[in-house]
Design brief:
This protein is mostly beta strands. The chain has one helix at 47-52; strands spanning 6-8, 14-15, 30-31, 34-40, 58-64. Helices cover 9% and strands 32% of the residues. The structure holds zinc ion.
């Protein structure tokens, strides 16, 4: 997937490349250095979401460096 998108170091949400703050948690700690695109539709039923402490449906990076 498009590697120029930005992942949030705080909540792992994927943001558009032109964002300066996370659209999920408003953190300014965004990075291009991430891997593993995952879309979580039902966080309450997802083991990955639980492990990532994700509570909102959306697109997330599995790994953020
Ligand atoms: Zn965030």
């Amino acid at each position: 997937m498009a590697s120029n998108r930005l992942a949030c170091r705080e909540c792992h949400a994927i943001n558009h490349a032109d964002e300066t703050t996370c659209n999920m948690c408003a953190s300014s700690s965004l990075t291009e250095d991430w891997a593993g695109y995952v879309t979580i539709a039902h966080p309450e039923e997802s083991d990955i979401a639980t492990e990532m402490q994700v509570t909102e449906p959306g697109s997330y990076a599995l790994k953020v460096r």
